[in-house]
Amino acid sequence: MTQTEIPTFLVELEDAFNRAMISNDIGQISRCVTDDWILVTPEAGPVSRSRILGVIGSGLLSHATMTKVPTHAWVAGDIAWVTGRGQNTGTFNGQPIEADEYITDIYRRVDGEWRCMLTHLTPVHEGQQGGA
Questions:
Q1: How far is the C-alpha of 5 from the C-alpha of 124, rounded, in Å?
Q2: What are the DUF4440 domain coordinates in residue numbering (predicted)?
Q3: Taking residues 24-30, what's their average pLDDT?
Q4: What whole-number percentage of the chain has pLDDT above 90?
Q5: Hey, where are the domains in the chain?
């Protein structure tokens, strides 16, 4: 496999993660992530699973749409990563939000199931083109 070949199971994992996030259901989201999942954002830096799920569970943050187009991936034993471009819309603190980001999700196989252990977001800047 080359870095740019995206295994079908990773595309399916990313699609399931997107559906869980727009459901705004912390139970569905929890099934996609490890107990020690970290979300790294440009605004807040590393955010723990409990903190992000708490914000979603409280209704402070909600997602209406979320898409990702994977462009690079790698699988090594029980660890896999996928990077791509993602867009999402929703609300934060009652205000509309939208994002255009490069997203890297790192997955770990736990008890035979792949779960995301780290999500890293990097904003796309105007005029920036994805490379490599």
A1: 23
A2: 11-116
A3: 98
A4: 89
A5: 8-123
| pLDDT score at 126 | 77
pTM of the model: 0.91
As a whole number of Å, the CA-based R_g of the chain is 14
Alpha helices per DSSP H over the chain: 8-23, 26-30, 49-57
Distant-in-sequence contacts of 29-35, Cβ < 8 A, 24+ apart: 29/53, 29/56, 31/115, 32/115, 32/116, 33/115, 33/116, 33/117, 34/108, 34/110, 34/115, 34/116, 34/117
Confidence at 2, pLDDT banded by 50, 70, 90? very low
Please tell me the predicted confidence (pLDDT) of residue 80: 98
Which CATH fold topology does 8-123 show?
A: Nuclear Transport Factor 2; Chain: A, (3.10.450)
d(CA 49, CA 97): 21
